[in-house]
């Protein structure tokens, strides 16, 4: 009971300009949708993978991130009293004082566009405290030397971070450090960082204070009492599990997804109008043809279906086109300037099957919505009037 | 293969414009025998197309009855009429009404898409229909690659491919030159004599009208005169 698909296919080429413009509109929307959602998926993947639930990040109360937190030596001394802190084999408490700063480093292939990269000054203890951080090449920097280890993501994204290369860091960007190691952190945010010995980093950046303290706890049961203790009058600092800290940073991506949805929603409405416009032109241009089809026995439903199919055909083809274009962005290394830390997070865009499904769903919805009114006009067409000459 | 008879009794049809009644057919009676070739003539605007649309189930009368074969059209709803048309009527128009993006064969195939039929049988029927109108060699041409006469022949093939009982033709030669018209009209005669189709054809052209067996004249809403042609006497094959 339905008209052959080839009929719709060939009709797409009758009104090339109108169909072409609609095609482009839908393809661009799909491209924007796919890229923005891949972007969010990439950021989320890199942040979610970060941190250990047994590590507490201790910050100054009110600080939104490490980079805006300053801890005085006497405050750190109070943290040492926290119950449940894990110890190393030699009995040392697993408490890592860290300084978080940032330095402008050129992006690979875009020397004129430097990015704010997170630099972390750590003591040797940090390599044990951050249990998901693993050295994969070279060695950790020696205490007291002008050496750094770089995260895998940072190395892929920024210039001058290969092993044995020299990189200028510091407040004035004039202190040369040698890259001696590369580390991974399960794809997490720490992989976007550059780590060096704390005293050297503090000196180069003229910071004599610590930004944060990372406390490793013995077990899950220790988390709650430890957080309570640090937040209490005894210490008066803020503490939260690392996983939670980074999850809060991912709240940003939820915002991106929501903004994307609103943006895509508005664009989709526009696209539906573009589709409707094209389909109205198609219906009006084929009045006699529709009348003839109805005369020889095609039902109103068959005519409606045919126009809806034609519209969905345009939209899904445009979707394939838009997605194909977006694959060009897939795996692209991007960096994301966090507005809480003011440092960049390097991550890869991820085109997930879910995003592909959303893109197709959106295209079909736009196609059907855009075809609805024109197809109805086609169905309402008065056959005998349309058959008459003129 | 065989045609159906047509019987119109006291048919009335009026259009309404700004709540004003415009009577077009006003108590019209017409009987056409199965296998007869009847020509309908009349001044422009006299309601010839309207009458054809009523017989073809494209429109319903305001009053009276329209019977085609077994079907009482005045009692059928739109859905029933649509299904009935696809089985029993072949339409031929002055404007051909071919689908420009489809080939001749695909245009002819269209009515068969409404039938439960294997694609092989469909192809067979299309080939046969195009053979009858002498266009086998133009199967894969698009309408814009065909002359007006060829387009009308494709339209005729489309009208007969379902093997309908009745063929309704509304000024089928109105847009064609004399020589091409003659070819089309001979084809109509063939459908009538060879395939026993009942034909009702509207024309302005007195020469074209001579191809039918009987001419009925429509004026002021009724048939007021009818004449038998030479063809009735068997002078024409
Ligand atoms: N939809 C309509 N509304 C109002 N009047 C109509 C409509 N269709 C046809 N008519 C009128 O009915 C009359 C008969 O039209 P038609 O059957 O097309 O005549 P013919 O085919 O003999 O030229 C004309 O006067 C025409 O103006
Ligand atoms: Mg007419």
Please give a handful of descriptors for the protein shown.
heterodimer, A: 390 residues, alpha+beta, 2 domains, 10-stranded mixed beta sheet, two-stranded antiparallel ribbon, 20% strand, elongated, B: 237 residues, alpha/beta, Rossmann fold, 6-stranded mixed beta sheet, 4-stranded antiparallel beta sheet, 10 strands, globular, binds adenosine-5'-diphosphate, binds magnesium ion
Q: How would you describe what is shown here?
A:
The complex is a heterodimer of chains A (390) and B (237). By secondary structure, chain A is of the alpha+beta class. Chain A folds into 2 domains: 5-48 and 251-389, no CATH class; 55-246, no CATH class. Chain A is built from 12 helices and 12 strands. Chain A has helices at 5-11, 16-48, 73-79, 126-129, 152-157, 198-204, 223-231, 242-285, 287-295, 300-327, 353-380, 383-387, and strands at residues 55-59, 95-107, 110-122, 134-138, 147-151, 166-169, 175-184, 194-197, 212-216, 238-241, 333-337, 344-348. In chain A, the strands form 2 sheets. In chain A, strands 1, 2, 3, 4, 5, 6, 7, 8, 9 and 10 form a 10-stranded mixed sheet that branches. Chain A has a two-stranded antiparallel ribbon with strand order 11-12. In chain A, a hairpin with a 6-residue loop joins strand 11 and strand 12. The longest helix of chain A has 44 residues, at 242-285. The two termini of chain A are 29 Å apart. With 237 residues, chain B is an alpha/beta fold. Chain B has a single domain, classed as 3-Layer(aba) Sandwich (Rossmann fold). Chain B is built from 7 helices and 10 strands. Chain B has helices at residues 48-55, 78-88, 104-109, 119-132, 148-160, 178-195, 206-209; strands at residues 6-17, 20-32, 37-41, 63-68, 71-72, 89-93, 166-170, 198-202, 214-219, 222-228. In chain B, strands 6-7-8-3-9-10 form a 6-stranded mixed sheet. The model of chain B has no long low-confidence stretch (mean pLDDT 93). The interface between A and B is medium-sized, with 26 and 26 residues. The complex binds adenosine-5'-diphosphate and magnesium ion. Adenosine-5'-diphosphate is lined by residues 15, 17, 22, 24, 42, 44-50 of chain B.
